[in-house]
Write a structure and sequence with these properties.
Aspartate Aminotransferase, domain 1; Aspartate Aminotransferase, domain 2; single chain; 36% helix; 384 residues; 4-stranded mixed beta sheet; 2 domains; alpha/beta
Length: 384
């Protein structure tokens, strides 16, 4: 058998901290490595594989489309793309009427920044401390973590950071030059910090009063993860632009900036080569259909509640707090998380960090209760 780790180390320009495992196969909420070891996946490709690995409906749709047409530039209309756009608009908040399709979440955020500036003719943005929106220059400028930012400055000017869930500070920062406010309903990489309903409603009202574009980043929270199709439904508010990606197409690279009629940008001001190609659009249709047909939002809500109740049955001395909305789970620890993630992987569970001390769990929404029980048991073993 080839030494895949050495091979990849030799040829990859690597920007990721690696775990010493070669993943080669997945099915549902399970993964296998090249040695045949089985893992319960509580990372889901960082929130991507919500409908499970090797989902049969998804695989069939990709095969069928690949045999028909894979790529189609934006200068032409396409049947599959039009059907996907119709499907996407049907599940997003009712005020959102058009979508720009990209390849990733960070590209969706880049588009949202440009669209907000062009629409309002203003330049500045307000984002939240601990927020994460991507690593390209515009998205990085809206991302708080200095370790991501400082080596690449100067970034795009005009971004101000305020404490999350603190409306007074946000209101003070908003002025006549503010084009947009960009927020996550639940901060993912920032530690699974759940937004406050009254806070988000107040932000929506402020944006209406001051002609500010409200951009909600639901790249991680979207598509049933939090127990609703989109997390903003928990707050009963609607954004002017909704940025989505990750779970949108079951694992295929697709992102979108979904816009209300308030957003105006003419032909030629933005573009993409691969964004919204027929192959990923076919995957997107299949993924959203699967979510709806299998009530994945309801499953996420029920399973998140079950996990929380189950884990609270144990006394975990290393745990400071547990936060969740649906199956978006953060376990804040009293120590560094990375060694515990490695130990958890040795126990057959793959999870993620969310900052230095938060263990983040984003399992596929199709995970069964038996596997949730196993995850809780393994967490108890390393956190007691």
């Amino acid at each position: 058998m080839r030494d895949y780790i050495s091979l990849q180390q030799k040829y990859e320009f690597d920007v990721f901290p690696k775990r010493d495992v070669v993943l080669v196969k997945g099915k549902g909420a399970k993964l296998w490595d090249d040695k045949g070891n089985e893992y319960i996946d509580c990372a889901a490709g960082i929130g991507v594989a919500s409908i499970g690995h090797a989902n049969e409906k998804l695989v069939e749709a990709i095969k069928a489309q690949a045999e028909k047409l894979i790529t189609c530039p934006g200068i032409f209309y396409n049947d599959t793309k039009s059907l996907f756009l119709e499907k996407l608009i049907s599940v997003t908040p009712s005020n959102l009427t058009k979508a720009y399709l990209a390849n990733s979440g960070t590209e969706a955020v880049e588009a949202a920044i440009k669209f907000a500036r062009f629409t309002t003719k203003k330049k500045n943005f307000i984002a939240a401390m601990r927020g994460f929106h991507g690593r390209t220059y515009g998205a990085l400028s809206a991302t708080f973590k200095k370790e991501y930012r400082e080596d690449f400055e100067p970034l795009v000017p005009g971004f101000t950071f305020v404490p999350y869930n603190n409306f007074e500070k946000l209101s003070e920062a908003a002025d006549e030059n503010t084009a947009g406010i960009i927020l996550e309903p639940v901060q993912g990489e920032g530690g699974i910090n759940v937004g406050d309903k009254d806070y988000f409603r107040a932000v929506r009202k402020l944006c209406d009063e001051k002609n500010i574009i409200l951009i909600l980043d639901e790249i991680q929270t979207g598509f049933c993860r939090t127990g609703k199709m989109f997390a903003c439904e928990h707050f009963n508010i609607q954004p002017d632009i909704l940025t989505v990606a990750k779970a949108i197409a079951g694992g295929m690279p697709l992102g979108a900036a979904v816009c209300s009629d308030k957003i105006q940008i003419p032909v030629g001001k933005h573009g993409t080569t691969f964004g919204g190609n027929p192959l990923v659009c076919a995957a997107g249709i299949a993924a959203i259909d699967f979510m709806l047909e299998n009530n994945l939002a309801e499953q996420a809500e029920a399973k998140g509640k079950y996990f929380r109740e189950k884990i609270y049955g144990y006394e975990l001395s290393k745990v400071r707090e547990i936060r969740n909305l649906g199956l978006m789970i953060g376990i804040e620890l009293k120590e560094k998380v990375q060694p515990l993630l490695i130990e958890l992987m040795k126990q057959g569970v793959i999870a993620l960090p969310a900052g230095a001390t938060v263990l983040r769990m984003l399992p596929p929404l199709v995970i069964d209760y038996k596997d949730l029980d196993k995850v809780v048991e393994k967490l108890f073993e390393i956190l007691k």
